[in-house]
Structures are given as C-alpha cells and as structure tokens.
C-alpha cells in the first residue's frame, strides 16, 4: 500500500497545526531548536493519523510526550489525548540478558544432529534480526509476538513514507522559493 | 456424499461406515488417544505407522517417501527456502487444499496451495488482528473439533477441494477458531497446527513487507529480508531528520503557511508550477490578509484551527496578497491536482 493523497493531506494539516503551536511560544533562533520543533510536530502528526489503533503510534506519542508534553497535549486535543499520554507503558520488556542466561542453563543436555544445528543457527539469526527490528520500530520492545511486530512494521513504513513525501515536497518548495 | 456438514458436524453422512468403525474403535475417549496414534512429526519409522488404522497408514506411506526427506524441522520464521518444498507443495496441491484462516481466497482456487495465500490488502490487515488473535487462542483450545475434522480430511482429501475450502473460509469468518487443514504427511496435533497457522500468518505478512520495501522481492531467506527492512526503516527515519534540518535552515521562522491542496502522489509535479507564482517572501507587517481570499484558496475544509481566523488584522500568516491573487486563483482552479507551492509563503 502506497501512501494515499488523503493521508498526505491529513498529515499536512496536523503538522501545520503542530507548527502553529510552536510559533508564538519561542522566537526560534537556533537551527537545532527549530529542527526539533519541526521533527516533533511531524512525528506527532504522523502518529495521530492512526488515532491510537496501532502500537507504534502510541509508543511514538508517548516518546514525544516525554520531550514536549505541551505540544502533544495541544495537538491531540479531542482525540483521547489524556488516555494516550497518561497510559503507562506496558511492562512486557524482558531483560534479554537474563533470559538468555537462563536459557543457556536449561539447554544443557540436548543432543544435536546436523540438521538441528543448522536450524538452530538459522533461528538464532532470525531472532537477532527481529530484535534489530524491534529496536528500530517505536514501541517494538512491547510487541511480544512476531506477527504483531511485522504488522506494525508494515504500518509504520507506510506512515513514514507519507511523512517523507510530504516533508520533501514542502522542503523542495521552500528551497526553490528561497533561491529567488 | 454430504460435505456440507463442515468440520463441526460429525453426522457421519459422508463417511463410509467401515471407516467409522475402524476409527471409532480407536477413539477411546476424547481426542487425546487418537492424537497419540498419529505419528510424531518425523514420521519415518514403520513402528509409528503400525499403530495407525490401516487407511491412514497407507496414505502416510504414500506420502512419507516424499515428505520425510524434505520435512523441515525448522520452526523459525520460515527461513531457508528448501528447494524440495516446492515439490512437496506440488504434490500437496494435487491432493489437498490448505485452508488458511485468511479471508481472501480468490487466489487459491482449484486446489492451488501456497503457504502464503494471495496478498490481502492492507485494509484487511487492520481488521485482521482482531480476528486472528482470537483465532490463535481458540485454535489451541479447539483440539477435539479439529481432530474430528482430521479424520474426515484423511479420507476426503481429493474431492471437491474448492467447495470445502470456501466453506471452511466462510466458517472461519463466523467462528472464533481457525480451521487449518493438515497437508499430507504433516502432523496434526494441536501444537504443530497452531504453529503452522502462526508461521503462515508470518509468511503472509513478510510477503507484504517484501512488496513494500523496494528490492526485497529478489532476496531469498527471512534474515536477509529482515535486514533490508531494517535498513529501509532506518533510512526513512534519517530522511525525516535531514528534511527537518533542511526545512529549519531554509526557513528562519518555522511558521510557513500552506493552504495548498495536496492531491498528488509525487512532489515532482510541482516543479512545473514554479514559474511566476512561486514562493513569495512576505514582509512581516502585511495587513493585506483577508479572510475571503484565504477561503477562496482553500478548496477543502480548513483544518480544525486553534487560532481565530476572524480577526486577521495581524499578519498571523504574514502573507503577501495583492499581486498574487489573480495568478493564484487561475492556477488553483485549474486541475489543482498538484501541490501548489505558490501559496507557500514564508516570513523573513
């Protein structure tokens, strides 16, 4: 599924809304501050498109809420903002090191055939990659099963593509205009 | 031969009687004993076969030659595509049909079996989690039902596969549990069934991901595909950062105003519109903003606004109005299928 134009429109609207919040607040003089403002509002806009249905959007909103609570509250007013922000993150995070150590202890006397060794190596590799994916996708650590993880990744990629497309067109327009 | 009973109804209408007696004698009470009769997953040995009722043993014998060498003991995310798997699938295609839990069955007509069914659209994915999650749990619980279904499966694999598959897919839509049919030579205990259903789900979604990420179709193997996906996501995130930095540096103040209609998919179209009516730099104290011109430009609903639009004496937007009105109107009314950057104003 490619990003649709309605999604882009919605994202643009929400993003603008977020930027407007920043405008009267500070006289943004430094580039880094402005970049942070732009990025945060873009992230919240992207996440709010999903209206809290997906795990990554909730995690993203919570992450930006730690950085700028006010922005998130303003942007999400009316769309169950309070529940999204105040909800505690699910404590499903398992300490990987501890789990790994205990698994090693349990794994003592298993006889390995050749096929099983290959299978085990392949499985380990895949698990490592899935862990890498969890690190990249926001809220990935809380997705306990792989099906959910892949589903969320799909949705996240599509949303990222909308975000990138819209931002790129704005930036191109802005840069071309400023060259005059 | 009444096949409309579905999985739940063991009316025995379609089952020949001698089968019933043979199986009933083994069915000692609940599905457990029956399941113990079913050979374990690595069904190669004769001793396991001897415990089975004769009909099933024969069928398993036929399939064991083909299935045992290629029985993958991998329970991972469907890695390492075995070349023999396709052979197995061809055989399985001729004899059985895999009824997956996914609703979209259009691609799987006439007994063609692919472990990943045809690509369901993304919209369905959103509605799927609600169903498939319950499917998963209930699938493990509903063992007896499926065991009863397996008896019928072993007998009736060849016949009217499409009809049955459609029926089962319909049923799976209504019922909370999953009907997954075992292929020839595959174990039928509930754990491996649930695992197989889960694996198929994962494979289906991986396929979607492969189509989404450019350049992933050629890659074989889950680990590499996952690598590509991770790289793609990281690159997208980095692009967002770069773009926001560019925007921040190009635009000294972050308030830019866009009342554009964004309808196109590619932003490259807007290069053509840059000629006369492109970005104008507004002076900060323009008082020319009028409400109706703003509304003229907008062919869509104005966004839910947090600032009042009525008293627009202040240049909240800081836009330059006068000479652009005519041009902008024309270009806006025409098509309006592109992002019109001529309305993007910036403040200095």
Automatic annotation (TrEMBL), chain A:
The entry's localization annotation reads: Nucleus
Which residue intervals define the domain IBH1-like N-terminal in the entry?
Answer: 5-66
- Pfam families (alphabetical): IBH1_N
What Gene Ontology terms for biological process does this UniProt record contain? regulation of DNA-templated transcription
Tell me the InterPro entries matching this sequence. Answer: bHLH_AtIBH1-like, HLH_DNA-bd_sf, IBH1-like, IBH1_N
| Transcription in keyword set | yes
Top-level lineage group:
Eukaryota
Q: Which UniProt keywords apply?
A: Nucleus, Transcription, Transcription regulation
Molecular function as annotated in GO: protein dimerization activity; transcription cis-regulatory region binding
Give the record's GO CC terms. Answer: nucleus
This chain belongs to which protein, by name? Answer: IBH1-like N-terminal domain-containing protein
Q: Which organism is it from?
A: Brassica carinata
Q: What is the lineage of its organism?
A: Eukaryota, Viridiplantae, Streptophyta, Embryophyta, Tracheophyta
TrEMBL record, chain B:
Record-linked InterPro entries:
bHLH_dom, bHLH_ZIP_TF, HLH_DNA-bd_sf
Q: Which Gene3D superfamilies match?
A: Helix-loop-helix DNA-binding domain (4.10.280.10)
Does this UniProt record's set of keywords contain Nucleus?
yes
| One Gene Ontology MF term | protein dimerization activity
Region (Disordered) location: 103-175
Ranges for domain BHLH: 186-236
Location in the cell = Nucleus
Its keywords, alphabetically, are:
Nucleus, Transcription, Transcription regulation
Give me the Gene Ontology terms describing cellular component: nucleus
Q: Which CDD domains match?
A: bHLH_AtBPE_like (cd18919)
Q: Which SUPFAM superfamilies match?
A: HLH, helix-loop-helix DNA-binding domain
Q: Where is the composition biased (Polar residues)?
A: 103-121
Q: What is this protein called?
A: BHLH domain-containing protein
């Amino acid at each position: 599924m490619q990003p649709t134009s309605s999604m882009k429109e919605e994202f643009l609207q929400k993003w603008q809304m977020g930027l407007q919040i920043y405008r009267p607040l500070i006289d943004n003089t430094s580039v880094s501050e402005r970049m942070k403002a732009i990025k945060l509002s873009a992230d919240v806009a992207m996440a709010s498109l999903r209206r809290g249905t997906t795990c990554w959007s909730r995690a993203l909103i919570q992450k930006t809420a730690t950085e700028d609570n006010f922005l998130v509250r303003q942007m999400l007013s009316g769309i169950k903002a309070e529940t999204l922000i105040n909800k505690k993150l699910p404590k499903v995070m398992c300490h990987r090191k501890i789990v790994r150590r205990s698994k090693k202890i349990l794994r003592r006397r298993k006889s390995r055939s050749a096929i099983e060794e290959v299978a085990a190596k392949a499985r380990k590799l895949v698990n490592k990659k899935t862990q890498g994916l969890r690190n990249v996708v926001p809220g990935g650590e809380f997705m306990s099963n792989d099906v959910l993880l892949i589903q969320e990744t799909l949705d996240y990629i599509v949303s990222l593509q909308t975000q990138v497309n819209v931002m790129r067109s704005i930036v191109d327009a802005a840069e071309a205009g400023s060259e005059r | 031969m009444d096949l409309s009973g579905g999985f739940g109804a063991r009316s025995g209408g379609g089952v020949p009687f001698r089968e019933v007696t043979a199986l009933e004698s083994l069915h000692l009470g609940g599905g457990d004993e029956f399941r113990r009769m079913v050979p374990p997953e690595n069904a190669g040995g004769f001793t396991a076969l001897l415990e089975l009722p004769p009909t099933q043993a024969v069928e398993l014998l036929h399939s064991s030659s083909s299935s045992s060498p290629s029985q993958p003991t991998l329970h991972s995310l469907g890695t390492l595509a075995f070349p023999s798997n396709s052979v197995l699938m061809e055989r399985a295609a001729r004899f059985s049909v895999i009824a997956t839990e996914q609703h979209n069955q259009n691609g799987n007509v006439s007994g063609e079996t692919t472990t990943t069914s045809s690509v369901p659209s993304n919209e369905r994915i959103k509605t799927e989690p609600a169903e498939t999650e319950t499917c998963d749990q209930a699938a493990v619980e509903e063992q007896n039902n499926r065991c009863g279904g397996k008896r019928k499966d072993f007998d009736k694999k060849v016949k009217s596969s499409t009809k049955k598959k459609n029926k089962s897919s319909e049923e799976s839509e209504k019922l909370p549990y999953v009907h997954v049919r075992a292929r020839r030579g595959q174990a039928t205990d509930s754990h491996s069934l649930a695992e197989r259903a889960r694996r198929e789900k994962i494979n289906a979604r991986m396929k979607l991901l492969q189509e989404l990420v450019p350049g992933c179709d050629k890659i074989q193997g889950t680990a590499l595909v996952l690598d590509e996906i991770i790289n793609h996501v990281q690159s997208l995130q980095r692009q967002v950062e770069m773009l926001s930095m560019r925007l921040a540096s190009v635009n000294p103040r972050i308030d830019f105003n866009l009342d554009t209609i964004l309808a196109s998919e590619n932003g490259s179209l807007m290069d053509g519109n840059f000629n006369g009516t492109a970005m104008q730099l507004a002076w900060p104290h323009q008082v020319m903003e009028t409400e109706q011109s703003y509304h003229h430009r907008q062919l869509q609903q104005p966004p839910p606004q947090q600032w009042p639009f009525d008293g627009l004496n202040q240049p909240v937007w800081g836009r330059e109005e006068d000479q652009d009105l005519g041009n902008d109107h024309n270009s806006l009314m025409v098509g309006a299928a592109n992002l019109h950057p001529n309305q993007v104003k910036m403040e200095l």
